[in-house]
Amino acid sequence: MGKLITVVGNSGVGKTTFVKALCAVGGFTNMLEQHIERPFQQLFAQGLYRYALTNQVDYLLLRAEQELDIRRSQGTGVVDGGLEQDFHIFTHLFYQKGFLSQAEVELCERLYFFYREILPLPDLTIWLQASRDVITERFARRERSIQIAQVDDLRLIDDLLRDWMSTTPPNPLLILDVTTEDISYRTAIAKVLNTISS
Questions:
Q1: If you compute the radius of gyration of the chain from its CA atoms, what whole number of angstroms results?
Q2: CATH of the domain at 168
Q3: Cα dihedral sign for 92, 96, 100, 101?
Q4: In terms of residue numbers, what domain contains 75?
Q5: Three-state DSSP class for 8?
Q6: CB count, 10 Å around CB of 155?
Q7: In whole angstroms, what separates CA 163 from the centre of its chain?
Q8: Which is the most buried residue in 59, 96, 114, 169, by most CB within 10 A?
């Protein structure tokens, strides 16, 4: 059965760049969020908020499918955000912003726990952290045609991350401060590879 590494963190902290760099060095398979390819993400990003629930269901299903592909392989796969972040962070972010109702959050919760009944938890969760100024600056530099989270959401996302980690922290969990890292993430990647091999 394949191994699963999940990389979580605030929007703009550098999850996707980190995952690509880690996979290039470690020879792992990356499974990215596919924000351009997701049909309901595009509609949601255009302000059609009635697609918020459809978008979340699509993402939760995508993440479960990605994990299943990784588990069926013999190698190691790395996902940016993943099932946990899409449920614990974005489902609740959209609820707090009024895009999802309580009943819709409960539907997402049922889906999440159903998937977790049939899929094992990640073998390692990496929480990328950086100072708020650095995250804000990196977020502003992001070149994405579809942007769901906004700069005003960064504080709320950080609060949701900390709430998740304080109540049901993933185990094992590796916390990496990447405030001073460049896009190679050399130091952080070395820590990850050392954790995996030990």
A1: 16
A2: 3.40.50.300
A3: positive
A4: 3-119+133-197
A5: strand
A6: 13
A7: 15
A8: 59
